[in-house]
Amino acid sequence: MNCLVPAIDGGMLGWRLNSCLVMIIFVLANMRGQTMPALKVGIGEAGESRKVMSSDPAVWFPSTESFARLLTADNRTMLRLIAERAPESLDELVELTGRAKPNLSRTLHRLASYGIVRIERRGRRIVPTLLCDRIELILPLTQHGSPGVTGEGDRA
Q: Residues 6 or more apart from 104 whose CB is under 8 A from it?
């Protein structure tokens, strides 16, 4: 059975046909032409009763709201700037984004905890690196939408 579902691509909202499985893809521009892996994320606790499958998400968010709070438009813009400009320090990223340094540092650490960026210390500098150029949220609407899910689904 097919259904029409929303899809986000590069910050644009569109519609595409999918088999009753919502897959939201945020594409982060990688202007250097390097191939980066997609990061598959899901909603729910990683330890919930699930059949482990190779197609399962690598990262789990506790709710769709927490996913949306982390990947705001400002944070996606910051991730694109990291990919395009490869800032050599947190101070350089502050200049590029216009955001406060404590805010950026906190956000980068949260993104790092989900495997989206890596934060390296090089001497006295903190250097962020993007680890993926796509984030795919796999959100089954029914148990038939994803055979690996046996739990109740999203908890707000």
A: 78, 90, 93, 94, 97
* Whether the Cβ atoms of residue 142 and residue 20 lie closer than 8 Å to each other: yes
Q: Name which of 66, 17, 57 is nearest 148 in CA terms.
A: 57
This prediction has a pTM of: 0.67
pLDDT tens digits, residue range 91-144?
A: 999 999 999 999 999 999 999 999 999 999 999 999 999 999 888 888 877 765
Is the CB of residue 76 less than 8 Å from the CB of residue 67?
A: no
Buried b (16+ CB within 10 A) or exposed e, 41-53: bbbbeeeeebeee
78 CB contacts (<8 Å, ≥6 apart)? Answer: 93, 97, 99, 104, 107
- Sign of the Cα pseudo-torsion (111, 48, 27, 29, in order): positive
- In this structure, the dihedral spanned by the alpha carbons of residues 65, 36, 120 and 66, taken in order and rounded to 10 degrees, is 0
| Cβ–Cβ under 8 Å, residues 131 and 115 | yes
In whole angstroms, what is the distance from residue 46 CA to residue 93 CA?
32
